[in-house]
Design a protein that fits this description.
Oligomer: single chain
Strand order of the largest sheet: 3-6-9-14-17-19-20
Shape: globular
CATH superfamily: Hexapeptide repeat proteins
Number of helices: 5
Structural class: alpha/beta
CATH topology: UDP N-Acetylglucosamine Acyltransferase, domain 1
CATH architecture: 3 Solenoid
Radius of gyration: 18 Å
Helix content: 25-40%
Number of domains: 1
Length: 202
């Protein structure tokens, strides 16, 4: 018979009150506490703890405390990642974050879900579904990413959005539930290239 951890990672119903999962959770809580106790003068220590907490960490990764990861081991983060204050990763299932991704304050990633039926839910059964975030993504503050969501490449998610369905590449998406507002186009590129030019001229 499969372990509760194997069921959890596979997206099947499982019970979190399990010795192996308790040990993984305790490990993460300890590392979360140590990470959040670091100061602005201890960035090397902070980075070392983060790389112990998170399963895979790329180059130039910065997460502003406070930060919480349920397990940490089930998350991979690419290069050039930034998360502002109060990021939460409920990574019961794999969380994959690509390169050049930025989070505003209080962005939450929730892979875990609970049965709608109360009888089943009250038996402590739950499930999780993986979350994938592509490359070159900016997610505004207080956004919530729900189980099973994939966010494509080159996407901007508006602040306060509740992402319940997958978002395609090259769009601005906003709202509750989060929906595509428009495509990102050449006019956007021209506008921001001009703003960058003005920046260097002034």
């Amino acid at each position: 018979m499969r372990s509760q951890k194997e069921k959890m990672l596979a997206g099947d119903l499982y019970i979190a009150a399990d010795a192996q999962l308790d040990a993984d959770s305790k490990r993460a809580r300890k590392l979360n506490r140590l990470f959040n106790a670091t100061t602005e003068d201890g960035l090397d220590v902070r980075d070392k703890i983060l790389r112990e907490l998170i399963g895979e960490v790329g180059k130039n990764v910065y997460i502003e405390p406070p930060f919480h990861a349920d397990y940490g081991l089930n998350t991979s983060i690419g290069d050039n990642f930034y998360a502002n204050f109060d990021a939460i990763f409920v990574d019961d299932c794999p969380v994959k974050i690509g390169d050049n991704v930025m989070f505003g304050p209080r962005v939450s990633i929730y892979t875990a879900g609970h049965p709608i039926d109360a009888t089943v839910r009250n038996e402590q059964l739950e499930y999780s579904q993986p979350i994938t975030i592509g490359n070159n993504v900016w997610i505004g503050g207080n956004a919530v990413i729900n189980p099973g969501v994939t966010i494509g490449d080159n996407v901007v998610i508006g602040s306060g959005s509740i992402i319940t369905h997958s978002i395609p590449d090259n769009v601005v998406a906003v709202g509750n539930p989060c929906h595509v507002l428009r495509e990102i186009n050449e006019e956007d590129k021209a506008y921001w290239e001009n703003k960058k030019k003005q920046y260097f001229e002034n």
